[in-house]
Design goal:
CATH architecture of the largest domain: Up-down Bundle
CATH topology of the largest domain: Growth Hormone, Chain: A
Shape: globular
Strand order of the largest sheet: 1-2
CATH superfamily of the largest domain: MFS general substrate transporter like domains
CATH class of the largest domain: Mainly Alpha
Radius of gyration: 22 Å
Helix content: over 70%
Order of helices and strands: EHHHHHHHHHEHHHHHHHHH
Number of helices: 18
Structural class: mainly alpha
Number of domains: 2
Strand content: under 5%
Distance between the termini: 41 Å
Number of strands: 2
Largest sheet: 2 strands, parallel
Length: about 475
C-alpha cells in the first residue's frame, strides 16, 4: 500500500493501525523500565531489617533513608518533562535508567546512614525521571482505541518490580547480605540501558515536531505497518487544540492559573488531598512492612515473602479498576476503592493469628491501595480541560510525593514509639477515609466536564455521565 506524495499525520496513522509486534516490543521495554523502577524504589524497605541489626541504628533513624528516594522521585519527575521536550523521550529515559542503576550500585557500598541517604536521593532522581518518560513514550506509540489498556498494562510493571524485590530479597539477603539487593537493583537497569539503546525508538511525534530526519520517521512507521510505502511523503503532527474559549480569543490563562481557577480550585485541592493520603498509606506499607512482620516474629525470609504479596495484588487491581472506570463514574469508583482500603487495613491489623488469612488480606489490601493510587492520574486527566490538564496531573503527582515522604517518616516515627503491627494498620484507616471523603466531596462541587473539554483518546471517562 502506498502513502506517497501526501502529508501523513503520524499519530493518526498509528491510531489507524493494529498493535504491531514492534509496538509490543516498546510495551515490553517500558514495562521493564517501570519494573526496575518498582524494584529500586522498594529496595530500602527490604533491607531495613538487616540495617537495623548490622548497623545498630534505631527505626526512627531509617526514616530519612526511606524518604530520600521519594524526594528524588519528586524532583526528577518535575525536571523530566522539560528535559524530554528538548532532548527527546528516549534520550532522557535511557539516561535516567542508566543513572539510577549506577547510583544503586554505589549505594551498595554505603557504610553509614548519612551516605546511604545521599545515594538514595541520587537514585531517586533517576527513578523520578524514568516513569513519566516511559508513560509518555508508550502513550505516543499506542493507538488511541487501546491507549488506556496499554498504559495500564505497562504500569503493572511497577507492582511486578515490587513483588520481585520481595522474592529476590528473601533469597539474596540470607546468602549474600543486604548489599546484594542494591547490587541487583543496579545491574538490572544497566543491562536494560543497553537494550533501550539498541531496541527502543524515539517518539515519532517528537521527531516530527523537532523537524528531525524524515528517514528516521519513515523507518519507524514501516516497522509498525510494513505493507505501507512512504516514499516522497511529508510527515506532520496535528496541533494540540485548546478547549479554553478564552485561549482561542487570545486571552489564554497560564496552565497553573486554570488549575487554581475558581472553577477547578476545590477539585484540585481534593485531588491533592486524596493522592497525598493515598501515597502516605502506600509508601508507609511498602517501606515498613518487612520490619513490621519481623517485629511480630516472622523470619527475615518469611517477612520478605509476605511483603511481596502486597504489590502483587496491584497487578490485578490496576486493570480491574481501570476497566470499571471506563463504564462507571471514575470519581465514585476510586472513592469506593479508598473505603475498601480503610476496611481492609483494619482487618489486617486483626489477622495475625492465621498466616493464610493474613497473606490473603495483605494481597487484597495491596490490590485496592495500588489500584486507587494508580487510577488517580486518569481521574485527574479527566477532570482538567486541555489547557490545564498536563499541569494539573503533574502538580497532583508532585504533591502526592510529599505524602510518600510523609509515609516513610511517619512509619519511622511509629516504629520509634514502639507501635505494633495491629495499631499501625488500624491507624491507616484514617487517611484512607479522608481520601474517600475528599473524592466524594468533589461530586457536590466540581463542574461537569463538557465534550469540548475532552480530547480524543483521553485516559478516562468524564466525571459526569
Amino acid at each position: 500500500m502506498t502513502t506517497a506524495n501526501r502529508n501523513v499525520d503520524v499519530q493518526a496513522f498509528i491510531d489507524s493501525q493494529r498493535f504491531s509486534p514492534f509496538q509490543w516490543i516498546i510495551l515490553v521495554l517500558c514495562f521493564l523500565v517501570v519494573a526496575a523502577d518498582g524494584f529500586d524504589t522498594a529496595a530500602v524497605g527490604f533491607i531495613a531489617p538487616s540495617l537495623l541489626t548490622q548497623w545498630g541504628v534505631t527505626r526512627a533513624s531509617l526514616g530519612p533513608v526511606m524518604s530520600a528516594a521519594l524526594v528524588g522521585l519528586g524532583i526528577g519527575a518535575l525536571a523530566a518533562g522539560p528535559c524530554a521536550d528538548r532532548l527527546g523521550r528516549k534520550t532522557v529515559l535511557v539516561l535516567s535508567v542508566f543513572f539510577f542503576g549506577v547510583w544503586s550500585l554505589a549505594a551498595a557500598r554505603a557504610t553509614s546512614i548519612e551516605s546511604l541517604t545521599v545515594l538514595r536521593l541520587l537514585t531517586g532522581l533517576g527513578l523520578g525521571a524514568a516513569m513519566p518518560n516511559a508513560v509518555t513514550l508508550m502513550s505516543e506509540y499506542a493507538p488511541a482505541r487501546i491507549r488506556a489498556v496499554a498504559v495500564n498494562a505497562m504500569f503493572c510493571g511497577f507492582s511486578c518490580g515490587l513483588a520481585l524485590g520481595g522474592f529476590a530479597s528473601a533469597w539474596l539477603i540470607p546468602h549474600f547480605g543486604w548489599q546484594s539487593v542494591l547490587v541487583a537493583g543496579g545491574i538490572g537497569p544497566l543491562v536494560l540501558t543497553a537494550l533501550l539503546i539498541l531496541m527502543l525508538p524515539e517518539s515519532v511525534q517528537f521527531l516530527v515536531l523537532r523537524k528531525r530526519a524524515d528517514q528516521r520517521v519513515r523507518q519507524i512507521l514501516k516497522r509498525i505497518a510494513p505493507a505501507h510505502r512512504f516514499d516522497g511523503c511529508r510527515f506532520v503532527a496535528a496541533e494540540v487544540r485548546t478547549a479554553d474559549p478564552r485561549a482561542a480569543a487570545g486571552n489564554a490563562q497560564s496552565p497553573l492559573a486554570v488549575v487554581l481557577s475558581s472553577r477547578y480550585r476545590f477539585g484540585t485541592l481534593m485531588l491533592w488531598l486524596a493522592y497525598f493520603m493515598g501515597l502516605l498509606i502506600y509508601y508507609l506499607l511498602t517501606n515498613w512492612l518487612p520490619t513490621l512482620f519481623r517485629d511480630t516474629g516472622f523470619s527475615g525470609e518469611k517477612a520478605a515473602l509476605m511483603t511481596s504479596l502486597f504489590p502483587l495484588g496491584g497487578i490485578v487491581g490496576n486493570l480491574c479498576v481501570g476497566w470499571v472506570m471506563d463504564r462507571v463514574n471514575g470519581n465514585r469508583v476510586i472513592a469506593f476503592t479508598y473505603v475498601l482500603v480503610g476496611v481492609l487495613v483494619m482487618l489486617v491489623g486483626r489477622g495475625l493469628g492465621n498466616q493464610w488469612l493474613l497473606g490473603t488480606l495483605i494481597f487484597l489490601t495491596g490490590t485496592v491501595v495500588t489500584s486507587a493510587v494508580t487510577s488517580m492520574s486518569a481521574l485527574a486527566a479527566s477532570f482538567y480541560p486541555t489547557s490545564g490538564r498536563a499541569t494539573g496531573v503533574a502538580w497532583m503527582l508532585g504533591i502526592g510525593r510529599i505524602g510518600g515522604v510523609a509515609g516513610a517518616l511517619v512509619g519511622g516515627a511509629l516504629m520509634g514509639l514502639g507501635w505494633q503491627f495491629g495499631a499501625v494498620f488500624s491507624l491507616l484507616a484514617i487517611p484512607a477515609l479522608i481520601s474517600a471523603g475528599g473524592l466524594y466531596a468533589m461530586l457536590k462541587r466540581v463542574p461537569p466536564v463538557t465534550s469540548a473539554d475532552t480530547d480524543r483518546g483521553s485516559l478516562a471517562t468524564e466525571f459526569y455521565h
